[in-house]
Amino acid sequence: MPHIFNRRDLTFQLYEVLNLEKLCNNSLYRDHHTDDFEQLIDLVERMAEELFQPHAAKVDANEPTFKEGQVEIIPEVKKALDAFIESGLPAASFSYSEGGMQLPYAVTQAMAFIFAAANVSTSAYPLLSLGVANLLSACGSDEQKQKFLKPLIEGRYFGTMCLSETQAGSSLADIKTQAVPQSDGSYLITGNKMWISGGEHNLSENIIHMVLAKIPGGDAGVKGISLFIVPKFMVDDAGSLGARNDVVLAGLNHKMGYRGTVNTVLNFGENEGAVGYLVGEAGKGLSYMFHMMNEARIAVGLGATALAYTGYLHALDYATDRKQGRPLNQKDPSSPMVPIIEHTDVKRMLIQQKSYAEGGLALGLYCAQLVDQQRIAISEGQMKAAKAHELLLDILTPIAKSWPSEYGLKANEQAIQVHGGYGYTRDYPVERFYRDNRLNHIHEGTKGIQGLDLLGRKVTQFEGQSTQLLIQAIQATLAEVKDPALQPMAADLASHLQLIIATTQGMQAQIPNKGIDAYLANASLYLDAFGHVVVAWMWLQQAHTAVTAMSEAVNDTDRQFYQGKIKTCQYFFRYELPNIKPALELLAEMDTTCMDFDLGLF
Fold first, then answer.
1. What is the distance between the alpha carbons of residues 61 and 432, in angstroms, rounded to a whole number?
2. Cβ pair 132, 161 in contact under 8 A
3. Per-residue pLDDT tens digits for 473-522
């Protein structure tokens, strides 16, 4: 059994919790039906099992190599990606006018989740490329779309995002890459970029680099950053490939996880200069890049969830089969050993994994549905509703990125522990899932950056509109919960929500006296606490749906599934949610222990 994902749970999340069928009642998605979605998921599941998962361990053990300026990757990667492209799946989420299938984003994210769970390294290439395509769709000119977007959607081109530089890291205001304007309207790009996933390979016809650079004479800091399309191979007006652009592979980075995703150092303009094309207006590059970065942040969270999920399923299977020890009340050493899943502490570790994995999936798919709702509102001219969906997604984005990255990794820790000593060896895949997932802390912005974004910007933006929309959404769920078994949890969520609100307001009131530095000093603690409240909300939604469905369940399998949802929700509220209170106490005090720690004391 592949242990990639639980089809029953995905079906529950999509159709019972999110009621995805409702999306098909509008003009944007009216050509689709849930039967279409299921057929696509069938296809993705087969491809994941037959082409992606089988080489996941091999590509981890045989990572890409740098030989004579070229990258060598095991052939199974290209075979899987060629099948992905031939299936037409790269076009799934794009509009008909762009040559796409115009599928709901929630469906395409569910498919991405499956591929990531099967093989996060190989799936990274096309999923990153789709982010480039979405960026060009939103911000590119008609000429740029014709030349570069179409082959990206067709899967013939892959793409990258080139932000970081060795001297700047996450401080993008300090990038040094230059873009000098030319008489023909193009720019010559010179500089170096670091940590570029998919930066060089022979998996596609071309690679489209989205590069942040500064035009000489522009504003200082982030206001001087512009965005450029820099192709690996030049493309003429007819779409034919020409000479190699001046983009050179300088070296490979060897990370602890995602080993199969080539990670590069790129030099732009070692000779005449790399030809680039300005996207949109000069000086607005960072705002354009955020189209891709925010999408990527949600994708990172979903990938972290996928790794937690497959790790949980592997641990569950191992605990079911592995026999060791006896019940505590069984004193006869000659009695048969029992499967370790019967030991309470093993159950605890499995429930914890289940609560993180299925809670993270609920959050990722909820965010994807917000994208769909925004698209629908725009297509129907309901701009106020579209803005509301955008603002709600805004405040959830740092949580959707960081919470699964933090707690999905904890799930993988427990998956290793369930396996005992075997979990710490490469004979079982759970140690690989852990190494892969550890990178999601750094992908698309550190946890600290996400905390600063949430507390420093998202909770206060537009006079607190994003926060109010989130509060209203949670309160709407609380109002729906009537079942006596869920009422204590609903009251608990309401209490924790009010605690978060009061803590935030109290901190904001202290800014005039203690300063903004003290306000943001423990932003990471705030991020974790806020994330736990949001995931508790996700679990209450699942439990509420399960209670309602229990009365109509036609067999014991369904009844057990729904009961598992209710019990896991109960676990999260009893064992996980209370853990945020000490952090909130520190936040309420605006504690500055870390901020005030003198450098000489280290």
1. 10
2. yes
3. 999 999 999 999 999 999 999 999 999 999 999 999 999 999 999 999 99
Q: Which residues participate in catalysis according to the annotation?
A: 444
Burial of 599 (0-12, 13-18, 19+ CB in 10 A): exposed
Q: For residue 281, which phi and psi values (nearest 5 degrees)?
A: -100, 150
Instruction: Please name which of 421, 357, 323 lies closest in space to residue 3, comparing C-alpha atoms.
Output: 357
Examine the pLDDT at 1 and tell me if it is beyond 60: no
293 pLDDT band, cuts 50/70/90, is confident
Phi, psi dihedrals of residue 357, rounded to the nearest 5°: -70, -50
pLDDT in tens, 529-549: 999 999 999 999 999 999 999
CA distances from 244 to 198, 269, 312 (A): 17, 12, 45
Torsion angles phi and psi, residue 490, rounded to 5: -60, -45
Angle, helices 285-321/383-418, rounded to nearest 10 degrees: 40
Torsion of CA 141, 142, 143, 146, to 10 degrees: 120
- Cα separation, 58 vs 84, in Å, equals 19
- Mean pLDDT over each residue of the chain, to the nearest integer: 95
Single out the residue of 492, 534, 522 nearest to residue 584, CA to CA. 522
Alpha carbons 595 and 517: distance in angstroms, whole number: 8
